[in-house]
Amino acid sequence: MELQKVIDVAAGREPADLVLKGGHIVNVLSDEVYEADVAIAGDRIAAIGSYDGHEVVDLAGRYVCPGFIDGHVHIESSMLSVYEFARVVVARGTTAVVADPHEIANVMGTEGIRFILSSSKYCPIHVYLTLSSCVPASQWESSGAELTAVDLLPLLSDSWVLGLAEVMNFKGVVANDEVILDKLKVAADRVIDGHAPGLTGPALNAYVASGIHSDHECTTVDEAREKLRLGMHVMIREGSAARDLDALLPLVSPGTVDRFLFVTDDKDVDDLMEEGHIDHMVRRAVKSGIKPSHAVKMSSFNTARYFGLRGLGAVAPGYQATITVLDDFDACRVARVYQSGRLVAADGVCVDPDNKLRRTPILRSAINVQWLEPTQFIVQASGAGPCNVHVIEVVGGQINTGRSVEEMPVVDGTIQADPSRDLAKVAVIERHQASGNIGLGFVRGFGLASGAIASSVAHDSHNIVVVGTNDRDMFEAAVHLVKIRGGLCVVRDGTVLADVPLPIAGLMSALPAEELSRKLKTLHTAAAGLDCRLRRPFMAMSFLSLSVIGALRVTDQGLLDVEKFRTIDLLAK
Question: Model-level pTM greater than 0.85?
Answer without folding.
Answer: yes
